[in-house]
Amino acid sequence: MELIAFAVPFFLLALLVELAVDAWRGTHYYRANDAINSLSAGTFSTTVGYFTKFLPLLAWGFALENFAILDLPLAWFDASPRGILLWVAAAIGWDFCYYWFHRLSHEYSLLWAAHVVHHQSEDYNLSTALRQTSTGFLFGWIFYLPLFLLGFPLVVLVTVNAINLIYQFWVHTRHIRRLGPLDYVLVTPSNHRVHHARNERYLDKNYGGMFILWDRFFGTFEDESEDEAVVYGTRKPLNSWDPVWANLQVYEGLWFDARHTERWRDKIRVWFSRTGWRPADVRERYPERSETGDLAHRFDPSIAPAIRRYAFVQFFVAVALTLAIARGFAAWGAASVLVPCVFLWAQLWTIGRLNEGRADGILLEHLRLGVIGPGLLGLGLWSGLPLGSSGVLLVVTYLGASFVALAIADRQSKNSLKTNVNAQYRR
Known about the structure:
This protein is 64% helix and 0% strand. It is built from 18 helices and no strands. Helix 4 (81-107) packs across helix 5, helix 5 runs antiparallel to helix 12 (243-260) and helix 17 (361-382) runs antiparallel to helix 18.
């Protein structure tokens, strides 16, 4: 896990470089609202992980301690030929398990409900790589149990997991086209672009994490064609910039079907069926819930420039808070960052509502600044949050400045709306 934390600054630097290249080439592969939503989902996933990531580690450690078939001491994983071979075997084994986890996450509803978050972006750039689920800890760990049952040490498998995730970051780009022979062996940008497609031709293909050989061997490979451009996103679009709803969208749909079907067998089957399956009685009464999105359409609501600027600034405040939370977690543990995380989650939620131009966005932001913020500050101080007097002053200043900025943005957006209406009336 430390490897991923070490890689985060390089992720952000690479993202900024890609942004610069995008501006220089004029390719418009980035939209601010979509990128903010992807990064918000990634931030939500990371901070929720502070309170959940220990659960898979406990399960893996228990399996290794009690049911391992082989004894592979950590000392064997050294710089010797045997040690290198064992590291390679662990990395290949992890990627093999990842292939099946990834593939079944597309093929079965309950697993898709967690994984869908990564596919909801209708753009494809390095910010998409950081768009991760917050509920993957529920079932994902199960698929890697065979490696622990074989006896691979926990620290080795956690390390190769981190390497696998870090590798997958760079393939989320449209600026790198073909890579010749590498496209036949490794997961490359071209191969992974196909995986993020919602075109019928490319749907549910190229599941590998590092090696595309698994897809070639098991019949799930599809080459990127020059004749048909990839259209990104999901068949049932999210149509929202809310990172909380992004994690709940498919779960809500499954819960809806389970509640409304009359057969008890179908109430259970809904959760464990193939992706897209719905009970016949529910499908007949609520057919609109199964519609697929228009491939030519991308969700991009128009909002007042003043509100857009306000949300943009608030997102950078959220980034700074995320970095502070990461330092607090490393120094004092999960309990010390619970209150700041709740404030961060509320902030990411209201940023999404503002970017959607929703009527309740301004109201919810006032609620966050006027009620949630002071309430959580008081709770944090009462519970011993190590803010200090300077920290309290900083939080109070932030809340007050945000109130003023929100009032100005709200007034400017209303004035802009009146100006546009009057102009239309004069014409």
